[in-house]
Every structure is written in C-alpha cells, then in structure tokens.
TrEMBL record:
Recorded family membership: Belongs to the SHMT family.
Originating species: Alexandrium monilatum
Keyword Transferase among UniProt keywords: yes
Protein name: Serine hydroxymethyltransferase
Catalytic activity: (6R)-5,10-methylene-5,6,7,8-tetrahydrofolate + glycine + H2O = (6S)-5,6,7,8-tetrahydrofolate + L-serine
GO biological-process terms attached to the record: glycine biosynthetic process from serine; tetrahydrofolate interconversion
GO terms assigned for molecular function: glycine hydroxymethyltransferase activity; pyridoxal phosphate binding
UniProtKB keywords: One-carbon metabolism, Pyridoxal phosphate, Transferase
InterPro entries: PyrdxlP-dep_Trfase, PyrdxlP-dep_Trfase_major, Ser_HO-MeTrfase, Ser_HO-MeTrfase-like, Ser_HO-MeTrfase_PLP_BS, SHMT-like_dom
Role noted for this protein: Interconversion of serine and glycine.
UniProt KW Transferase keyword: yes
Amino acid sequence: MQHLRTGISRAAAAAAPRPSRAVPAHALGRAISTETMRLNVPLKDMDPEIHTVIESEKDRQRRCVNLIASENFAPLSVLEAVGSVMVNKYSEGYPGARYYGGNEFIDQAESLCQQRALQACRLDPKEWGVNVQALSGSPANFQVFTALCNVHDRIMGLDLPHGGHLSHGYQTDTKKISMVSKYFESIPYRLNEETGLIDYDECEKFAMRIRPKILIAGTSAYSRLIDYGRMRQIADRCGAYLLADMAHISGLVVGGTIPSPFEFADVVTTTTHKSLRGPRGAMIFYRKGQRSVDKKGNPIMYDLEERINAAVFPGLQGGPHNQSITALAVALKMAQSPEFRTYQEQVMKN
C-alpha cells in the first residue's frame, strides 16, 4: 500500500502544471526552424498587398481634411501600444481574478487604465468605478441595458432622426432596427422641431407616462449642450436610472471645455477613439456608494459594479483586447496633459 501511495504521489507530481520559466533567448533561437522564422518577417515582406493598402490609407489621411466628427487621429504612442505584444495574451476575468496564468502585467495595464480613466474625468474612486473592457460603444450600451433591465423593460432615448444614436434602441413603425429594440421596449423622445432643441418638458411628461427603467441623455448628431441637471430631475421623478452617453464629446468633457455629466448620471458610457483620441474601444463608468434613502431614512446603496462587470464578462464578452486597453491607458495619460486641454479648446473654437 505504501508503494501504491508513493506511485500515485509521483504520478500526480509529474502531471501537475509547472510554473512557466523564462527560456534563454539563445536556446529559443536554436529551437526555431528556418521555415518558422520566415513567418516572423516584416509586413511589407510577408504581405506586400496589405502593406500597400495601409500605406495608401496613411497617405489618404495625410492629404485629406477630415470633417467627420466621429473620427480622429491616434497619436504615435497609442499606435505603438495597439501594435504591441499585449495582443498575444488571453485574460478572461478582471485584475486579480483571471482564468489564465501569466497575467501579472496585463493586470498592471488594466488597473492603470482604470485609475487614469477616473483621474481624467476628475472622479473619486470611492464614488465611481469604471469597466474598460467593452469593445465598442454600441456593445457598451447594450451591456448597460442587460445589467440594469429585464427583457422588455422600457428604455427612453432621443430618437435617431432627431439626433440620437442607433444603439439607444432605434426602430421604425414597421421594423425593429437595433437589437436593443428587439430585447427591450425602446421608446424615443424628440426635439422641438421649431427650435431644434430637446423639449425637456415634453420629455418629462412622456417619461411620467411610460416610466422607463433607463433614461438616456446622449446624442450622436446634436450640436447643443445637454441639460444633465434637468434630465436628472426627470429620471428621479419617473424612477429611472440616468445613463449619459458621451461617446462623441468625452474629449471635450475630459478637457473641461463643456459641462460634465458625472455630477448627475448613474452610469456614463463613452467610446475612446473619437474626441478622446485613443484606440477603438469603450468605457462604462458606474456610481458607487449611497444612491438615496428609504422612507425610514436608511441608506439605499448602489449595486451597479457587480451587475455591469458581470454583463461585460462573462455576460457578453470573453477575453478582453489587452492591446486596446493598454493603448487606452496611454491615451488617458495624454488626456490629462495641458496640451490636450489646449487641443480641446481649439476644437471648441473651430
């Protein structure tokens, strides 16, 4: 029996996963065949066609004046991070709680990105948290809806033809266009067509009738400032969460050139590649701490962090794009510089 136990112990030890060890570069080089090394040549040698396409697009961007407001130019430092070895790592989960080993540096990059996101928006980490794993703006909004709503709950946002965004649940009289409108009851509010402004009084009357679970303050084609304080009043009256989608204006918010939604919103979403000048991606900011008090004066606490994080992973995504998160950390450092503020001030002048 003792021999059997010893044999089992040795077999288990042999089968147990071993910690990764650094392999000397010279030893690794001997193990790579000449044929394999040919796979690791520069792009212009591996794929001249794609290299030509990229160079042509680079030339087009240099020659053309781009008046598309939702596009921008990522700085060299951001491009370097996007094209880094961070793309090689799988890291399902969140910092400190991953499903794969070897994520210590991925954790550092993501944690730094979160810290810089809060700093750039001048937020107290005791009152706000942020998820930086969302892949783009529309998925980020959908993740918020799935976190805070049940299927067929009501969502209220600005109508797409009046300046809203597709991801806020656009549909026509005959067809549900956005997936949001298929899973939730998306009901639009509209502009006053005589003034071209959001009609907050009509929005409030409508919200009181339909009682949405989420009220969206955000646009994609509206050139005026949003009265977030007024939207907060409407949300409180109808019992809704206030979601501010600042995807198009986040750089202006970070630069301090227009009012911030954070004072009033429960959740804030944004893309990262428009006025923020980062890589393609998105962030979801969520409130923490006390939300309100009940009738007896007892505090009612926010419970958004766990719900939103679970909606992102594992709810709708697998492994995050670590190269994008790393590049976003770089962009968020840049966004806190005096030069970035000067840049946003010039945008406003233009």
